[in-house]
Amino acid sequence: MRLLSLSFSLFTFILLLSLSQSHASSQHTNNWAVLVCSSRYWFNYRHMANALGMYRTVKRLGIPDSNIILMLADDAACNERNRFAGSVYANPGRHLDLYGENIEVDYRGYEVTVENFLRLLTGRLPPSFPRSKRLLTDSSSNIFIYLTGHGGNEFLKFQDNEEVSAHDIADAFHQMYEGGRYNEIFFMVDTCQANSMYSKFYSPGILATGSSVVGENSYSHENDYDIGVAVIDSYTHYVLEYMEKVNKTSRLSMADLFTSYDVPKIGSHPGVRSDLFDRPLGPEHPMNEYGLGRGWTVEGGGEWVGREMEAEKRGRGLREALITDFFGGVVEVDVDGEGESVLQLFEDLECPPVFKEPTPPPIKMYSPPPPTPVSSTSLFDEYPFLRPSLAFVILGALFAFVFSGVISGRS
Amino acid sequence: MDGPTFRLQVFLRNLSFFRPKGNPNLARINRRRALFSLIARRITILKLALFIAGYVWMLSIPSTRLDRGVYFDENALQPGQVNTYWNWKEVHDADHFLEELETLRDSNATSEQRSQYIMREFLKIGLSASTQNYEFTGLHNDINGTNTYAILSSPRVSGAEATVISASWISRMDEGNGTLNLRGVATVLALSRYVKQYSLWARDIIFIISDGYMEGMQAWLSEYHGVTQSNIRAQRLDLSSGVIWTALNIDYPGHSLSHLGIFHEGLNGRLPNQDLLNSFQHISRRTGVSVVLYDHKDEPELRWLPESIRTHPEIKTYAAQARNLWRHVGYQASGRGSGVHGLFHQYRIDAFTMFAVPSAGPHGFHSLGRVIESTMRTTNNLLERLHASFFFYVLTSFDRFVKIGNYLPSAILISVAMMFGGLQVWVDAAWTQRLQEKPQTEGPARWIRRRRPVLEVVFTMLGTHLFGAATFSFMSSRRYQSLSSAPFFLCLAVYLLPLVLPTLLRSHSNNSDPPSRALVLKAFNLCLSSTVISIITVLNFSLAACLAVALGIPLSIASPSSNQAIRIANYSFYVVLGFGWVLLEETTKQMIWNWDVLGVWLLPFLCIVYFPLTLQAALVCII
């Protein structure tokens, strides 16, 4: 009897330990995306295409329209100069219409202002605003924020008359942190001198990446000679191209994304900032290579703020950041356009057939690798209340058992 | 003691050692006086240096040291980034139109018949089209004709803005000497049919076939913008569109073309925004058609230079660029512009002429159509009027230009030299050497102040300008046209003037002495000329440069002489300099035509400003 009770308590202890450890790592219950194209006018077609390309990707990976805030400062699809009215393409040859049939632009045209963007982030919107224009996040939301437009050192131009500064965004993030509006943020920006945009952040839980270092331009990738303008920016193009390898169940880490940056192809030096971010970006092997090798002319590796903290983070045994932590969805989703592989769009139809196969159906599994073979943690992710209640029940049972043993021993 | 403070005090004490003793205000006044006297003592050298610097600068404008490559400033333009679909079907259309136009030409069709044909074709294509009759009254009442125009409404937006594609019936070949622009007209017709297929035009496109060379477009444009030119009687336009932003004028006089030439100078020295020209040359070269400035497709021949110098690349470039510049100065200074496009600039429309340089090949409708299509797509991308690039520039080649800061100072330096000269003379006029009563007394000459006769000199100058105005009104009258000997009468009048004027002056003011009067007149004349040149530099640099050359040194060296023969020779020189152009019958006729029909202000400027200035210098020599 005593042996049995001891073994049971040991088992429960191990279970609790494993639970508490996974609790200390990223715990998010919902994913959000804020995608902003801040520049207007026909010749900035590519910025619209950037944001729409990102929109398509996050939607494909499982964030529903209700959780995506798409801000487009201009309507390139319906511009009178658009030869292909009602469509936006991100690749020469126009294989995939990003505007398509199922798209929800939440902020459009002159609604895309610095004020609206900051109000959206901080949640200080007038009561008249509909739910579709609100970022209804909580302290367990992971938010992916993508900005594209014309920018400079520590600013991004909105429309043609105002700028958001790096300080503004940093302060907005801190308000979000104080207000418990996020669990983690992944901030990505594609503009000239983009890395300056994340340089002022000071709130925990933010992972950031940008397309170019201070003093460097970001370049457009390709023109479509029938549309008559550049259709996508280089950095976004290669990020999207990489994202085509990712599906909802993929285990690729952020390190895989960051180490896929190819400087000669992109034409600028992307940067990473992870010092505010708790978790390691990925396994040691690829991430240590970040910023080294072909094309990286920067002394001592590409710009990576928080490089020295990485080993220590890894030592803490925290779960590494996966791409699907930010791009994926953990909520019920109806997924659109699943069967179509977009790699063909980027690879001129020379894609391996494996990507042409429909990706496996969305499995409602979001499981960090368990340190001990304890199964079905995915159930906890599904039902977040389950974990505390289970722990409570077990703890109660243990106490009851121990105390009953003591009582029985006395008697 | 604290180190830095101590050191500072020592430094200040040392500083005060250099400071002059006594009243600081007095010291300042003395310093300023010393500076002025320094300038005054060296004023002749300073003047000379400024003149030399100005002229040398002017000569070095065509060199590659002062110019730079052109670049695009407007992001929206996106030149040469489209596929063009103008193809052999469209070329066939153009050939068909050309055939019919040639039939019309051979049958000696009137303007009316021609315009009816063109309008019918526009209507067949499905555009709204109309014609406009016009005639000029007054001096040139023999000018009349019929313009034809059609408007393609922008398919997807309201037509608040418009682009013009035009061709004049008469080509700019030999400055509009009568060569017909049939292929240009055929191109516009074929183009109108072609662009009708597309729905991507962000603004209305107006196709204009203007009659005559410049006059038809002048009538059309003034009517379109509601400007009343008293001597035009033009029909109201039935169709209207939005604000015109850009205009392309197509001129294709030959049967094939080897290069496309850029002609860009507008009326009264205005220039189109450089972005337009840059985009065009970029597009054209991408399409495979070479671009030249004007019709200079061959390198200038420098037979008179020895072989080694002639073949030197720097010299060759200089010669080519100098030839372009010379042509530019001719077009800009004359105020007439270099073609029909020049008329658009007065309404703030950026325009230029694509001139198909006649040749045996290799290009034709096919290449030209592609270039125009791509250029139209580029102008279609504009979101606002062209404003980013330069309006003040000198093109030394189709892809090189001189910025305003690199050419403007040349004329300004000369103008400054003249101003210094004028001020020096003004100071000199106030002093005279006292007649020495006791010649045996040694010592420096004694200077005394004297009165400067300002008012009578101002009246003299006013008189010369009034005389100029009278000359102008006579020249722009019908009598001048009918009287073939009128120029000689005018010159005679100018020669007779000194017989009247000085006697008038003398009879009025016996008490002032002539040398002082001549000096004051010279001072005023120099200052006025300097001011005129400075002002004209920003309006019409070429004209200002011409003025700086014509007036700079001649006006500065004008001085009275005691010798009667020299005085008459001097006087004649200044009269020929200022009024000699009247004897050139063709030039005068052209200038009168330009003033009367197009409103070019060169003639009134020459009569009322330039000629009186030289006349004042001439008077300096004889009073």
From TrEMBL, chain A:
It comes from the Eukaryota. InterPro entries: GPI_transamidase, Peptidase_C13. Pathway: Glycolipid biosynthesis; glycosylphosphatidylinositol-anchor biosynthesis. Pfam families: Peptidase_C13. Keywords: GPI-anchor biosynthesis, Membrane, Signal, Transmembrane, Transmembrane helix. The keyword Nucleotide-binding does not apply. The chain crosses the membrane at residues 385-407. Residues 1-24 form the signal peptide. Belongs to the peptidase C13 family. This is Peptidase C13 family-domain-containing protein. It comes from Lentinula lateritia.
UniProtKB/TrEMBL annotation, chain B:
InterPro entries: Gaa1. Pfam families: Gaa1. The keyword Cell wall biogenesis/degradation does not apply. It comes from the Eukaryota. The keyword Cell inner membrane does not apply. The chain crosses the membrane at residues 38-58, 407-432, 453-474, 486-505, 526-553, 565-584, 591-613. Keywords: Membrane, Transmembrane, Transmembrane helix. This is Gaa1-like protein.
